[in-house]
Prior knowledge:
The structure is a single chain. Helix 2 packs parallel to helix 4 and helix 3 packs parallel to helix 5 (122-147). By secondary structure, the protein is α/β, with parallel strands linked by helices. The termini are far apart. The longest helix has 29 residues, at 237-265. Strand 12 (579-580) and strand 13 (585-586) form a beta hairpin. It has 18 helices and 13 strands.
Amino acid sequence: MNGLVIFIIAFSLCYATSWICYLNLNRGISKRSIHQQGFRFATTSILSALSDALAHQYLTIEAILSSTLVAGLWMVTYPLLYHLTNRKTASDYDHFMDITFGIYAWGCLTALHILSMAAPFLVPLIIAIELVMLAICIFQIGYYMMYDVCLDANGMKTIQETHINEIIEFYHSFHPAKVLSVLVAAIVAIVALCRWNLSISHSESLPTWLIVAEALLLVIYLYYLFFAKRNVFSRTGLVTLWRTIKDYKQRNYIYREKKEKRLQALEVSSAVPLNEERPKTIVMVIGESASRDYMSAFRPQPRETTPWLSELSKDSRHCLLVPNAYACANQTVPTLERALTERNQYNDKTFYDSCSIIDIVRKMGFATHWYSNQGHLGSADTPITLVAESCDVAKWTKQDLGKPQYDETLIDFLDELDPQKNNFLVLHLKGSHFNFTNRYPASYSEASRTADNTVEQYRTSLHYTDHVLQTAFEYCKERLNLSAMFYFSDHGDLPMGRRSPNFRGFGPVRIPMFIYCSDRYIAEHPDRYEAMVANKEKHFTNDLIYDFVCGLLDIQSDHFEPTDSFAYQSYRFTRDMLLTNEGRTPIREDDEQMYQEVGRK
């Protein structure tokens, strides 16, 4: 066969295999992602197929069989095991870099096999690479067979903290016959792989142009695999997990070290001390990607998207809508790093040097509970996790493989709260995070008739969030002595636009916020209540949530400035003073007139 035929066959096999893996081992993939990955897989397959095509007259199937099997195994192992572990509960996950890595690795090993004909000293290198890749895959498979789950954050933490003596003790816990069989199997695999590569290796006089071409392709493969700014290897599932846990341990050490010093000096008191005989619950709900531009409680819509909140807001004594709330950033972490701590856009404090909401309320004597439908650990989630894990109880749905990962599942956790205690409850929703159709059960979708309409999917996700808020509110009111409840979103979204990490105008930072105050709260905190009523039309950015909570609870502390609190008459911020985009953009530049019709489209 000539080079073109070889290229077509190699490209077709790579591209078809990547698509089969991607579509069958991932869930909740958006059309946008499918198109993006389709282009990625096509480009990667073209590059990897070039090695075979250029050297078609020198290369045999036997020469690259082991490399093909090893690269294919890497391509499938982590996505498959993750899929088997999470397919019944997770609404969406997207492991595409393992597939891309497998294709590039195949091209890389193929190029090395070809070059080894002219440079036999490369054969041991090929064997070493294949052995390492094979060992990593076999380890993951063995872990899954032992624990019935793929390697996760808990398993990776254990691995990184394990000493050699603990490994020896671990193996001693198994029957010697099992340990011996594993060792024999490993030795057999190693010997077989070595013998195969050595048996097929041979010297060949290659033309100079082919050596140069294969070497150039090898450099390209290695660049994309390991050296590009967003290289493929660092974003594969297992490596991402390794880096995530490493990063978490380092940040956790810094956070705990500084937290202990802060808490020793932290003084907190309240104008209304907690009454153990009359316990109460304060609820903070953190939304995700919710925009008030699409919520009927804040702006007219083609259909009702917030029926419960719209009805509740008619009770203007107890429910205060905040129609001029903004996010301080258009991404979750930079927003919540500030919202949950003293750090904000208007001071020079750092995350690690700031007290958190949880520090304050625990010091007051509240039992603290954090239940999240967001990620537990990740380079993006770590700061939020550090604050959450300061609670007496902190749980994530993704740690509980028996729970479907829709926001309503968080309600199941509320049975854990003791109504005889003073509770501070945090619910962190997945809300309206893209892909919107994965944010609500299929049986819930009243907009199924327009399932291909992204805006309608977004509206339906907001409608579902409204339902979750209602369910949480009614539960806490009936069973947990609800005193006050407030909701805000980390940031908003533009459902008709393309997602971007960069600031794209004010649409993605116009967020919803409401405050519910019970009769008991109003009676116990009349000054705070009157201040919130007076301030409800004023402008607000959610990096001041920490200060708002301190005010809401009538806290007195050297880590709180009342003039920064929305719950004080002395609240100092005006529209002209407030900022977004992490302090770079004044919100006075928001021309809302441009968006007056967005809710009707």
